[in-house]
What does this fold into?
Amino acid sequence: MVIGFTLFVIAVLIIGIWIIIEMKRMKHKLFAIFLIALILLLYLSSTIVFKGQDIQWNSVSGLIDGTKLYFSWFGSLFTNMKSITSYAVKMDWKSNETIENDNKGFFKLSPEE
It folds into this structure.
């Protein structure tokens, strides 16, 4: 009986250590996935923003102009998201039929008199 309990304790310790190691590895994997997604987002958004723009990247003034252009686009992205959200909140999401039937229940079980 002592041997069975000892094996159980050893098995729990091994499983616990394995879970801790996997959690650390998972944290690193999630961070790597986050970095990859961030790099892809930066690349795709910069190709969209700088398409058709003549920016001289080899001068300081060109770098400043490119940075201003990118962050102004990024700021307008948040402004547009705010506008879309406020329009969605202000919309009337209930149809007239639902408003009329609120007190009667969702489904009509008997015909109206």
About this structure: The first helix runs from residue 2 to 49. Residues 1-49 form one domain. The chain has three helices and no strands. The CA atoms of residues 10 and 45 lie 52 Å apart.
